[in-house]
Amino acid sequence: MSKPIQLDLFTSIETQPEPHKQRVLNGMYYERSTGLFVSYMQGRRHFEVTPARCLGDKSWKDKTMRERAI
Asked: Which of 12, 15, 41, 16 is nearest to 29 (CA)?
């Protein structure tokens, strides 16, 4: 396990060290290349599901497809 890194909350992200520029995926995303909803946990692919089998109403699916597409 790596040591914790102290973040300076009053500087912009561009001036912080390199590890903080990388974004770790967490949550549900829509993957355009496969057409699947994909869940990521701490940057690792956890599971994937087709839009038809994905639990969630149509408005949530549409919003996710628009705003969280990778």
From this structure: 41
Question: Residue 38: pLDDT band by 50, 70, 90 thresholds?
Answer: very high
Q: How far is CA 46 from CA 15, 32, 50, 58, 68, in A?
A: 32, 17, 14, 22, 16
pTM of structure: 0.64
Among 28, 35, 33, 34, residue whose Cα is nearest residue 68 = 28
Residues of the chain by 3-state class (helix, strand, coil), percent to 5: 25, 25, 50
Classify residue 6 by burial, with Cβ atoms within 10 Å: 0-12, 13-18, 19+.
exposed
Rounded Cα–Cα distance for residues 38 and 44 (Å): 10
